[in-house]
Amino acid sequence: MDELLNIPKLLKLRKVTTIISANLEQELKSNITTLTPLFHPKLVFGEYISGCKQTVKGSDATFKLLQEAYKSLRQSKVFYNKLNELKSPIDVFGSTLELVPYEYSYKITTNGESKTIKIKSPLKWVIGFKNQGITQLRELLTDQASPRTSDIQTCVLHHLVLQSIYAKRKNVAKLLEALHIPVNLKTSTEFGNLPLIYISSTVTTTLPPDNIIIQSTEISGMPVFEEVIDLDVIKPLTDPFKEKLLKLYQ
């Protein structure tokens, strides 16, 4: 990112970022909708899903791994006393996938004072089941007046189930990568090391210098900032499929 970046240049970059982000997100949602049937829980867990009588090969081992992951989360500080024991069959009603923009906290120290900014990544998302994603989970965990243990458990269980399905659908990840949509599975410290599926674009976004972020948040009056696209990474982009074909006859 250019160290000489100023607010006018930032505004131009933001316009470009918004246009590219909207286009890529629309295309990504279309691809995810097409792949949604492959992520139905019963295809992997079979009779372990409440109301399903279908027997699925390997479901015993898959459910055992799910139990182990769930038990580990129960012992974490974030979910301590917030998750009940997991028993079979499990109530999982999610089948429609949704994308939630990725957000994280960023601390800036200026003039001896620290300020925490919420950063949004316009070209990175977290995949979850509709109405059971990280947005709902974050709200439930911050609701001190009414923690609603059963709702927290439902959200956590849906994420674990989705992660289990993803582990069984390696070809799906390869397909998305071929479409320039990298997928990454990573644990989230915010949610007690809950494994989340991140999906992004090969085009990356970045943060400008801290002073620009501070100026921008002071102008908006909100401790929120959105990353902007790094135009330098677009120019050298290549098509892996094209390169693969070229290598075949070289």
Overview of this structure, please?
With 250 residues, the protein is of the alpha+beta class. It has one domain (7-249). 43% of the residues lie in helices and 20% in strands. It contains 8 helices and 7 strands; from the N terminus they run H-H-H-E-E-H-H-H-E-E-E-H-E-E-H. It has helices spanning 7-35, 42-45, 59-74, 134-142, 149-168, 170-178, 210-220, 240-249, and strands spanning 97-110, 113-129, 183-188, 194-200, 205-206, 224-226, 228-229. Strands 1, 2, 3, 4 and 6 form a 5-stranded mixed sheet that branches. Strands 5-7 form a two-stranded antiparallel ribbon. A hairpin with a 5-residue loop joins strand 3 (183-188) and strand 4 (194-200). The radius of gyration is 21 Å and the shape is flat. It starts with 6 loop residues before the first helix and ends with a helix. The mean pLDDT is 87.
Quick rundown:
It is built from 8 helices and 7 strands. The chain is α+β, with helices and mostly antiparallel strands.
Shape: flat
The whole-number mean of residue pLDDT values reads 87
Question: Using only CA atoms, what is the Rg?
Answer: 21 Å
Which sheet architecture does the biggest sheet show?
5 strands, mixed
How much helicity do the residues have?
A: 40-55%
- Tally of separate helices: 8
Unreliable stretches covering 5 or more consecutive residues: none
Strand fraction band?
Answer: 15-25%
Q: Which structural class do you get from the secondary structure elements?
A: alpha+beta
In the residues, how many domains can be counted?
1
How would you spell out the order of helices and strands? HHHEEHHHEEEHEEH
Number of strands: 7
> In whole angstroms, how far apart are the ends?
37 Å
